[in-house]
Amino acid sequence: MPHALNPAPTPSLSGELQERNGLRLENISKRFSSSSGDGAQLQVLDNVRLDIEPGEFITIVGASGCGKSTLLRLILGLDEDYDGRILLGETPIRGTGLERGIVFQDHRLFPWLTVEQNVAVGLKNAPLSAAQKREAVTEHIELVGLQDFTGSFPHQISGGMAQRVAIARALVNRPSVLLLDEPFGALDALTRTRLQRELQHIWQHEKITVVHVTHDVDEAIYLGDRVVVMQPNPGRVRRVVDIDLPRPRNRSDARFIALRDDVLSDFAELS
Fold this sequence. Notes:
The protein is α/β, with parallel strands linked by helices and 271 residues long. It has helices at residues 15-20, 68-76, 115-121, 130-143, 159-171, 189-206, 217-223, 254-270, and strands spanning 23-33, 41-52, 57-62, 83-88, 91-92, 100-103, 177-181, 209-213, 226-231, 236-242. The protein has eight helices and ten strands. Helix 4 packs across helix 5 (159-171).
């Protein structure tokens, strides 16, 4: 695995695009039908309100069942059956779109495709020529430091490298918003820490808006401009914590530790 991330030079997003890639969640409520078949409904999200600035890195933490992943599905456009509105810039989100990319905990690579081919899948519906697609794929494989593994298959690379491929695939369309659903949750501690650093570099390089769901409070504070703390039954925003620490962040810094303990105290109160 490469020892350093050296992003390939690439044009930054235009000012116009950056103005369009903020997110606004207006009074989002979501219910699911009960599995009992009695017509009852389970409320998963209740009146979630959040404004996310263009280019901001937001992390969302909360206990299982608080609706974090459901919220990402709504932002992605996979589910339109909810109350409230989600706007990208000034436009309400309707269905999926190339302007939103996502990475899951499971990398979901196609095992019969190489690294290069898996990244190229992200451009299947892009309005680009074949040459432009090849250039974009090469650029984003270099962005995640896997230029020496373009011909490798998923079973030939590590779990951390597979997640890099998934990130490259999500970014290759140059989305204005990147959604991350526990992308490092299945990795060992050392790999997770390294990919957290590299994700931060990628975000700074690509200048996009990121919404990152995690169970790891340490990860949330290390990466986020703000940490959204959710509480369950039904899922609501308990509070939003500003992380006013310089980057790169030092996990041993007393201010970092104080913020981590402060956010963890919310979980103690909810248990």
